[in-house]
Write a structure and sequence with these properties.
Blueprint lengths: L1 H7 L1 E4 L2 E3 L2 H11 L3 E9 L22 E9 L4 E4 L3 E2 L4 H7 L2 H7 L5 E2 L7 H4 L4 E2 L12 H29 L2 H4 L8 H19 L7
Parallel strand pairs: 3-7, 7-8
Antiparallel strand pairs: 1-2, 3-4, 4-5, 4-6
Helix pairs in contact: 1-8
Length: about 210
């Protein structure tokens, strides 16, 4: 059942499903909505001793064995896409490039995509379509006026990006994604299947009671 559920994609309405990143970009361009991306890590079993490339699943952030997925949501917090997983050592920006996000934005419609600090550098490669936090100008002994401005900008960006954090939290409410104890090779279909079921639930929750 998992492969079938994974192939269904994310349900946006009764007649619209998004199955690929290209369809997500086209949908955002057609609706004029802002997209939000973020990476999330899912803990997995440690590879057996002696297995080749055993360390590639160790996350540089959490120092745990994990796989990483990129989650795409819109400004309303609706889940649009969950990418195939990569080993935990893969950087967020590398994962986005491997998925073809830069090319899709260069050749596709003009859309705005909010991203975290892990995606710094994509803005220059996409003509500003990916919006990331700016680099700090003062790492030490920053003036008071700069700290206040930086904090104000940080809160403004966080309040817009919090929607994708909520989407990731809902994903990880599913026991299969809180910590995956099965084979790592099945993690792709498991994550996409859960994302599809969650999006279907979000769509059902928006249907008025008198229409059911």
């Amino acid at each position: 059942m998992l492969p079938l559920l994974a192939e269904r994609g994310c349900t946006i309405s009764s007649d619209v499903r998004l199955r690929s990143l290209a369809e997500v970009i086209a949908h955002l361009g057609a609706t004029g909505k802002t997209g939000i991306i973020d990476g999330t890590e899912i803990r997995v079993r440690r590879p057996a001793v002696g297995r080749k490339a055993r360390d590639k699943f160790i996350s540089g952030k959490n120092k745990q064995n994990a796989v990483k997925a990129m989650v795409f949501a819109d400004g309303d917090g609706r889940l649009l896409f969950c990418s195939p997983t990569r080993p935990g050592s893969c950087a967020d920006i590398t994962h986005a490039r491997e998925l073809g996000l830069v090319k899709l934005l260069a050749d596709g419609p003009a859309v705005e995509i909010l991203a975290g600090a892990g995606y710094q550098g994509l803005g220059a490669q996409t003509s500003g379509r990916v919006v990331t936090p700016p680099h700090r100008k003062f790492k030490k002994d920053a003036p008071d006026w700069y700290e206040k401005m930086h904090e104000r900008q940080r809160k403004a960006r966080s309040s817009r990006r919090i929607r994708v954090e909520h989407g990731i939290a809902h994903l990880k409410n599913w026991r299969a994604l809180s910590r995956h104890l099965g084979r790592r090779e099945h993690m792709d279909t498991t994550a996409r299947a859960v994302a599809g079921l969650l999006s279907q639930q979000q769509t059902a929750d928006q249907i008025p009671a008198w229409q059911t």
